[in-house]
Write a structure and sequence with these properties.
Length: 62
């Protein structure tokens, strides 16, 4: 379930970033998108960890 939420967050961010470049190119929008982009690696890493946990469980050695 958490993978779906994290994946949706990445998709939403990507769509928001793509559409905002066509709609408004003001400095405030650019600053907001920089802030949004800074969260992408965190969401991506969390998604990778959630996927690894779903695949391997709490024992990553076996």
């Amino acid at each position: 379930m958490i993978q779906a939420w994290l994946s949706a967050a990445l998709t939403y961010q990507n769509d928001c970033n793509s559409s905002s470049t066509y709609v408004n190119t003001t400095d405030s929008i650019n600053q907001a998108m920089i802030q949004v982009q800074s969260v992408v690696p965190l969401i991506s890493n969390a998604l990778a960890m959630a996927d690894a946990y779903a695949t391997y469980g709490s024992d990553p050695v076996n």
